[in-house]
Structures are given as structure tokens and as C-alpha cells.
Design the sequence.
């Protein structure tokens, strides 16, 4: 096994042995991995400040002979996202994104689009972009990349094609939408305006740059937020730990 | 089943539960205890129990103590009016050993960490706020570690404290190039901090 270099986002750090660190990191080309940084707590030379939580780092690593643990050789800081530590709500949002990524992408499952999503989201938090919007953009796209995209094409009850006109109702048990004839709007089945459906559909399937160019009204954000909260909790089966500190 | 008699295996197993102790070190330690006289084992056992029974948090600063208040809070020769906020007892000890700071401390017992489910209410923040009013504090030094979570905790406290008390001086320990450091091996963030917080030598 040869050494390999990938850009990676540091997801978790744990003290390991007397002077080592156990790092969970998300790479662009090999997914989420675990590795040991030998002596990283004693000497900062090989890892000059690049193993701090949520940093973007160029990591040099190789797979250990046994198991799925990697051996971290060195690292170089690419970006530390200082804006992410400027307040608790920023750290909480970043934590939520990492926690959702961990659930959707098991160890070793690579998805470059997911890596780009996480990285771009961190850049956006760092720049102080609106957190409500960043949260829904991340959630919707991450769920879709993880295989839990919401189906907006037809009514999940009668099968009628959704033409993009009129309101639709989200049905969490189906992970899709229903027409107003089949389902009434309620707290557990929130309604969506046709513009909101269009926006959410675009977030699910488009690259960050395209989504960034879109305009979302506060009403759209509110509608999407309540749909995604239900959708994520239903598919994941629980509330995420870090979700408690959002809003 | 291990290769040693059961009671020795048990001791090795107990030692491996300590942080940073692997099977090898644990075996070495257990064999050392076995070879030593009985007083060593008795002394160790007694200290282990005592530390669990007697050590508690200081009712004022939450430092470790075996009294109601820790020795620093009891020390009348120390300056009132300045509180240095640290993450844990280890950090407090390190600062104390440097011998520079003569004020009071406040131990948070952790940092904000949403990933681990640790929020403001899990740290000794409320007690810090009431101390500032009660003790007539003029300056709070935020000495959490310069990690992502330590920095966030410092920002959070700075926000909270400045909102509560407009006249309070809030400072942060300096970040930058460490003593004996080498610029070639420094990361961008550290160098940025070091340059931004440079000090005037002569003008
Ligand atoms: Zn229908
Ligand atoms: Zn005390």
C-alpha cells in the first residue's frame, strides 16, 4: 500500500495513547477515514496546526497493514475557516453538517460531490452567509447524495404527475409529495408552494455554484426547513445530537 | 485467559483502563507492583480511594480541592478583580506553574462541543456570571486553548460577558509563534495571528 495525499476535512479528534491523535477525516477521493497521527500531541512539526477540528488539510496517509485504520504521515493546512469559530451558532451548524455526513456516508464510501458540498458549506459559514439558508442547502443536497432525495415528480398517493403548479404536500413516510386531493396540509405533512418545490428540487440535484445563484425568500426557507426537519429525522430515525444547538 | 495468574491478569487489565497505557506498559507496571514491597501497594490503594472520596470542585472557581474552597480562592494575598478562565484543572495548573498570574481562576470543565452534545449549560458558565457581579470583577482573561472548540468557547464567553456587563474588560491570551518555534514550520493561521498581534519594541 502506497502513501496517498488527499484534501481532507478533519471531522473528529481523539487523544490516543500517550502522544498520538486518532483522527476521523473526510477525503474527496476515499470518503471518510480514520487514522492515527503518531506523536502529533508532542511535536507539531509534521502536522503544523492542521489537525484542528473542521480544518481543511492536505493529508498524506497510508493504510495500516491490518484493519481499516490509516497511518497519517504529514499534513498541511489549506484553510482553518476562522469564521467558523467566531460564534457558537457557526460551530453548531458545522457540527451538524459533519454529523449528518457521518451518518449518510459510512467509512470508506467515497463521494466527491459530498466532499465538495461540505467544503463549500464551510467556506460559506466562514464568510458569514445566512445560516438558515446554508442549513437547508446542505441538508437537502446531502440527503439526496446519500440516497434519500425527496421525490417531487408525482403524487405519492395517486401517482398523478406534479406539473409544477399549485401547492404540494410533503409526506414523510413516503419521502415524497402528495397532491392536495390526496393529502391535507398539517404539521406533520407541511405544504409547499410551487416555487418552494422548484427551489428544493434544484438544491437536491445541482452543484453548489448553481444553488448559490438562486434566490430564496424567507417564506421559502421556512417551508423547506420544516419539510427537511421531518425528512431528516424520519429517514435517520432520530434527532441529531448537534441539532439541539441550531436556531 | 492470559498467561499470568488471574490476580495479576486483573491488575494488568485495570492498568490498561488508564489513558495512554497499553498492554505492554500495563504489564510492566503490574510486575513492578508485584515485585515491590507491600507498602507500595497499600499506599497506592489508599490514595486511589482517597482521591475518589475527598477530591471535589471548589465551590467558587470549580478547581479541584479537598476542601470547600481551593487554596487559590482562600489565598488573601492574591489580587481580586481579575479572573482567568480556563478549560480544565490541567490548564489552571500549567498557568499557575508559570507563576505570572496572581489573580483568581475559573475552571469551565470543558469547551463547547456540539458534536459531543456539550452546550453552554454543560459548562460552569452560570457560576462565572454570578462571580463577576459578586466579586466586582474588572477583567476576565479568556485562556481557553486555541483550538476550534476553545476559540469558539472564548468568542461565546466574550459575547455573553460584554452583553451582561458593558464596563468589563475582556482579554484573550496571545496567539502566535511559540518560544523555540521555527517560522518555517508554522501554519498560515498562526503566522497571521502572530503578525496581527505584533508588539512595538521601539518607534
Ligand atoms: Zn394525489
Ligand atoms: Zn477555588
Sequence:
Amino acid at each position: 500500500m502506497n502513501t496517498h495525499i488527499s484534501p481532507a476535512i478533519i471531522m473528529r479528534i481523539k487523544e490516543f495513547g500517550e502522544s498520538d491523535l486518532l483522527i476521523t477525516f473526510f477525503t474527496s477521493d476515499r470518503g471518510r477515514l480514520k487514522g492515527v497521527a503518531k506523536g502529533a500531541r508532542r511535536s507539531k512539526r509534521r502536522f503544523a496546526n492542521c489537525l484542528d477540528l473542521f480544518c481543511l488539510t492536505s493529508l498524506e496517509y497510508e493504510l495500516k497493514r491490518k484493519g481499516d485504520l490509516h497511518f497519517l504521515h504529514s499534513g498541511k493546512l489549506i484553510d482553518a475557516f476562522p469564521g467558523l469559530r467566531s460564534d457558537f451558532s457557526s460551530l453548531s451548524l458545522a457540527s451538524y453538517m459533519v454529523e449528518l455526513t457521518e451518518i449518510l456516508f459510512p467509512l470508506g464510501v467515497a463521494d466527491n460531490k459530498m466532499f465538495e458540498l461540505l467544503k463549500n458549506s464551510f467556506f460559506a459559514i466562514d464568510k458569514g452567509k445566512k445560516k438558515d439558508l446554508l442549513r437547508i442547502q446542505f441538508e437537502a443536497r446531502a440527503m439526496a447524495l446519500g440516497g434519500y432525495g425527496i421525490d417531487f415528480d408525482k403524487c405519492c398517493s395517486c401517482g398523478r404527475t406534479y406539473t409544477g403548479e399549485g401547492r404540494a404536500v410533503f409526506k414523510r413516510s413516503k419521502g415524497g409529495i402528495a397532491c392536495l386531493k390526496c393529502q391535507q396540509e398539517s404539521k406533520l405533512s407541511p405544504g409547499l408552494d410551487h416555487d418552494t418545490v422548484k427551489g428544493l428540487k434544484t438544491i437536491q440535484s445541482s452543484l453548489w455554484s448553481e444553488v448559490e445563484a438562486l434566490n430564496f425568500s424567507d417564506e421559502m426557507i421556512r417551508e423547506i426547513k420544516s419539510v427537511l426537519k421531518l425528512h431528516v429525522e424520519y429517514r435517520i430515525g432520530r434527532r441529531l445530537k448537534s441539532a439541539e444547538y441550531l436556531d | 485467559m492470559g498467561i499470568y495468574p488471574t490476580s495479576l491478569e486483573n491488575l494488568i487489565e485495570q492498568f490498561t483502563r488508564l489513558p495512554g497505557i497499553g498492554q505492554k506498559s500495563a504489564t510492566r507496571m503490574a510486575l513492578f507492583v508485584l515485585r515491590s514491597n507491600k507498602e507500595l501497594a497499600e499506599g497506592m490503594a489508599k490514595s486511589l480511594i482517597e482521591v475518589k472520596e475527598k477530591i471535589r470542585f471548589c465551590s467558587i472557581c470549580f478547581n479541584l480541592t479537598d476542601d470547600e474552597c481551593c487554596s487559590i480562592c482562600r489565598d488573601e494575598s492574591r489580587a481580586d478583580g481579575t479572573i482567568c478562565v480556563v478549560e480544565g484543572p490541567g490548564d489552571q495548573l500549567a498557568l499557575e506553574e508559570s507563576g505570572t498570574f496572581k489573580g483568581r481562576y475559573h475552571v469551565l470543565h470543558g469547551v463547547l462541543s456540539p458534536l459531543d452534545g456539550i452546550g453552554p449549560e454543560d459548562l460552569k458558565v452560570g457560576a462565572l456570571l454570578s462571580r463577576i457581579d459578586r466579586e466586582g470583577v474588572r477583567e476576565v482573561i479568556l485562556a481557553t486553548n486555541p483550538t476550534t472548540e476553545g476559540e469558539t468557547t472564548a468568542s461565546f464567553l466574550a459575547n455573553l460577558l460584554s452583553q451582561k456587563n458593558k464596563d468589563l474588560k475582556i482579554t484573550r491570551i496571545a496567539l502566535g509563534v511559540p518560544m523555540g518555534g521555527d517560522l518555517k514550520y508554522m501554519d498560515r493561521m498562526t503566522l497571521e495571528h502572530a503578525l496581527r498581534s505584533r508588539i512595538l519594541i521601539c518607534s
In short: Chain B touches chain A at residues 19-20, 22, 112-117, 119-120, 147-149, 151-152, 155-156, 159, 185-190 (CB under 8 Å). The helical segments of chain B are 6-16, 23-35, 38-54, 71-74, 89-98, 125-134, 148-164, 188-196.
